[in-house]
Predict the structure.
Amino acid sequence: MRSHVHPGRRRLLVTAAGVIAGALALTGCSSGGGAASSSGSWSIPSKDPKTTVKVLSILSLKSPDNMQPVVDAFEKAHPNITIKWQTVPFDSLNSTVDSHVSNKGGDPDLYWADQPRIAALASRGEAEDLTSQFGGYSSSFDKVSYETGVQKGKLYALPIANSTQLLYYNKDLLAKAGLPTPSASTSSRMTWQDLASDALKAKQAGAQYGMTFGQFDRYYQLEPLSVQLGGSVGADGKDNLTPDFTNSAWVKAMTWYRSIFASGAAPKGMTADQTDPAFLAGQVAYSVEGPWLLPELQTSKVHWGVAPMPAFADSKQVATPTGSWSVAMNPFSKQKDATAVFMKWLAIDNGSGYIRYRSNPELAANVKGKQLYFDKPVFQSTEGTDAAKIINHETSQTAVSRVKTIGYIEFESIINQAYSDIRNGADPKQALDAAKAKLTTAWAKYK
């Protein structure tokens, strides 16, 4: 099974209590809020200082996350710097960062930052301004990945991982239904309309499920549907604090979303943690899911293929999901120079030490690091080669990041509920209007 913190999937395991706790941490007043950055008072040194850098991460050193080889490789390359590692669960990360940074003690020096939360971290003064020291490295990353760490023209975090989505299909189930296999070419991608139609045909021909999304009712995966039809990422205005998801593009995308459940092409009751096991068991004809499914498919008995994530026949643009993890520096760290050395090594040096030395395959945000990722055994099959070409194209050409706003937690919670209501038959326009009213109230405290 994949790690629970894999990009894009990690949110699925957050409990209701965790969501509430995270929201309180992100939206409440913090004693560290508005702390002045000291961006100009430190540098990336040419000679390593002898010190210890304290790291707060959602990844463990040992199984299942296997970060120990990464730490060992860094300490071998930089013997004067010792890494002290602390692991916390995903649903505790934001509250832990808030409490530790706001006490101004400088511990941790570096922490894992969930990209949609960077706007809030920056606004509260809990992330160091990295612009002077790292702004010149922007070309090392896929553009959208780099920009997830930029708020109001300043850089507050460096991306270390990325994500995208692909369309997986079961060749046997498609053959049984007399359906053609989708093209692996990003210039000939399947349409959502054809996918819904063919998924229903596959189910009628014997597939238990016609199609699934790896993350039913989740903004990360469904956001591009509305963007493809000309909609925004869901908010606009000053600081992206004006809801913008009741327009015709959003309504049209969600009308299609509701239709796949109403027709039976997609299952209403399946939860996100059931989708991958169902595909791996040969029960699903088509599944939209991330690259993290690839290692499991390599050892499965499913006769599978892969194609680009679909677009609508009348799309205004091709858009695909993106986003994962970054690393940020505590503005009160007493070891900023050494922390900068570790940040640079993790995200930039030799294509990213994080990607080069971690045994778990993870998509790199670093452009050179993507080749390290594609050199993994999982990409050496015919299907794996197709997947690598698609992933490389989507992350550099079609990726659309989630909305940047200090009110992201409220946004995600409310829009996900709207998706769920629509999936279960609610009128899309009414569901989105209701979500807008809730979010306007929730965001009033920011204005």
In short: The first strand starts at residue 51 and ends at 57. Confidence is low (pLDDT under 50) at residues 1-37. The CA atoms of residues 15 and 207 lie 32 Å apart.
